[in-house]
Amino acid sequence: MAFRTGHIALNVTDLARSTAFYRTVFGFDVVGERTDGDRRFAFLGQDGTLVLTLWEQSAGTFATDHPGLHHLSFEVAGIDAVRRAETVLKGLGVEFTHDGVVAHREGASSGGVFFTDPDGIRLEIYTPTGAESAPAPTADAPTCGFF
Predict the structure, then answer these.
(1) CA distances from 32 to 29, 45, 54, 110 (A)
(2) Start and end of every VOC domain (predicted)?
(3) How far apart are CA 73 and CA 112, in angstroms?
(4) 96: which DSSP letter?
(5) Which CATH fold topology does 72-138 show?
(6) Quick one: which of 44, 46, 57, 136 has the most CB atoms within 10 Å?
(7) Chain centroid, CA 39 distance in Å
C-alpha cells in the first residue's frame, strides 16, 4: 500500500477569522462552507484540490504542551515564494517564531519562515533549496523540531 497525506483538518475558534487568514497567507479558495448554525466549517483548496478544512468547534488557543499536532509545514517552489509569504505575514502583523527566513539546520539549503495562525497553531512555509545564506537559529537541533 502507498499512502500520501490527504487534506488537513483543524479546529478553530473563529471560522471567519481563520478562513480569511488561510486565504490571505496561502491563497486558498473556498471549495465549500457553512457559516451559519452550530456546525460551521470551511473547505479550502488550491487548483481544485482540497487542502485544508476548518471546523469551528474549539475554544482557547493551541496547546503546544499536549500530545498531538506539532506543526503544519507547507512547501513552496523557491526562496522567492518564501520571501513573498514573509511579506504577506508581516503585513498581517503575524509574529514570527524566528527572525524571518531561517535555515532548517546549520549549512542546509532548505529553510523557511515559522509562525502561528490566529489560534496559535504552529505553521511553516519552506523551500527545499535556496536558503543557504539564511541563519540557523540553533546548531544542535532541526529548526522545525523545536519552536
Answers:
(1) 9, 9, 11, 34
(2) 4-128
(3) 10
(4) B
(5) 2,3-Dihydroxybiphenyl 1,2-Dioxygenase; domain 1 (3.10.180)
(6) 44
(7) 24
Fold of 8-56: 2,3-Dihydroxybiphenyl 1,2-Dioxygenase; domain 1 (3.10.180)
d(C-alpha 102, C-alpha 105), whole Å: 8
pTM over 0.90: yes
Sheet arrangement for strand 41-46: 8-12, 49-56, 41-46, 29-34
- The C-alpha cell that represents 130 in the structure block: 535556496
pLDDT tens readout for residues 84-111: 999 999 999 999 999 899 999 999 999 9
The domain locations on the chain are 8-56, 72-138
Q: Residue 50: what residue type?
A: L
Given a cut of 50, the residues of the chain with pLDDT beneath it are none
The amino acid present at 120, given as its one-letter code, is G
Cell 499536549, located at residue? 66
Distance (Å, rounded) from C-alpha 45 to C-alpha 80?
A: 22
pLDDT digits (tens, 9 = 90+) for 47-61: 999 999 999 999 999
Q: Work out the angle at residue 9's Cα, subtended by the Cα atoms of residues 141 and 119, and round it to the nearest 5 degrees.
A: 65
